[in-house]
Amino acid sequence: AQSVTQLGSHVSVSEGALVLLRCNYSSSVPPYLFWYVQYPNQGLQLLLKYTTGATLVKGINGFEAEFKKSETSFHLTKPSAHMSDAAEYFCAVRTPNSGGSNYKLTFGKGTLLTVNP
Amino acid sequence: ETGVTQSPTHLIKTRGQQVTLRCSSQSGHNTVSWYQQALGQGPQFIFQYYREEENGRGNFPPRFSGLQFPNYSSELNVNALELDDSALYLCASSFSLASYNEQFFGPGTRLTVL
User: Fold this and answer.
1) Is B58 at the interface with chain A, CB within 8 A?
2) Contacts with B41 from chain A: Cβ below 8 Å
3) Chain segment B2-60, per-residue pLDDT in tens
4) What residues contact residue A36 under an 8 Å CB cut-off, 6+ apart?
5) Number of A:B CB contacts under 8 A?
């Protein structure tokens, strides 16, 4: 079964510091992996995704993630945190629908990122 | 281009009541998925509709039902509300069933069951 584990429910960094949010997955099919960001009282916005090809994926707002099959990981990084990065971040993996011919997203529990001035 | 919209934004109901939540997909999108996000949790898949037919369902009881209309707008209906149904309900539309396609999320409907 597909699952996602996000290590650390809360990560706190200083403005300008490296951001590292961890995500490990399990998947019985070739994984498609996604990172979403959720600002307070808003829906989810896609940051980046890995489907096939290059394992280092660049997304919006300076974020990037590297797919490491051997480690079953897809950690999200940003070299220099900005105050506006404070939000909740969700890692997700595509998962076959039971009884259907398509896929759903299985999400981790999320990591709340706070950025200190 | 109009994004995904949901209504209402907030809703308060009592146990046993029924509720209908609405979603308007992004223009050109024929696939919609609904998710439940409990407080402090990640979204959990409820079901998906493609061209007005249910195309997959998560681990939710039958009192959660849905509809998709010819214009690809969608409804989520929940009967016999329970306290644990209190959550943020998100809908997401995508261009097609292809799993590599981005799902565009709406802002959600916050449901409180008292």
Assistant:
1) yes
2) 109-110
3) 789 999 999 999 999 999 999 999 888 889 999 999 998 999 999 999 889 988 888 99
4) A44, A45, A46, A47, A89, A90, A92, A107, B105
5) 73
A101-104: list long-range contacts, CB under 8 Å, 24+ apart. Answer: A101/B55, A101/B56, A101/B97, A102/B48, A102/B50, A102/B55, A102/B56, A102/B97, A102/B99, A103/A32, A103/B56, A103/B99, A104/B33, A104/B45, A104/B48, A104/B56, A104/B58
Q: Rg of chain A's alpha carbons, rounded to an integer?
A: 14
Please list every residue in chain A whose beta carbon sits closer than 8 Å to the beta carbon of residue B58: 104
How far is the C-alpha of A31 from the C-alpha of A17, rounded, in Å? 30
- CB B110 within 8 Å of CB B88: yes
Q: Does A10 touch chain B (CB under 8 A)?
A: no
B103 touches chain A (CB under 8 A): yes
Distance between CA atoms of residues B22 and A99, nearest Å: 25
Kindly report the number of other CB atoms within 10 A of residue B29's CB atom.
Answer: 17
pLDDT digits (tens, 9 = 90+) for A34-87: 999 999 888 899 999 999 889 999 999 999 999 999 999 999 999 999 999 999
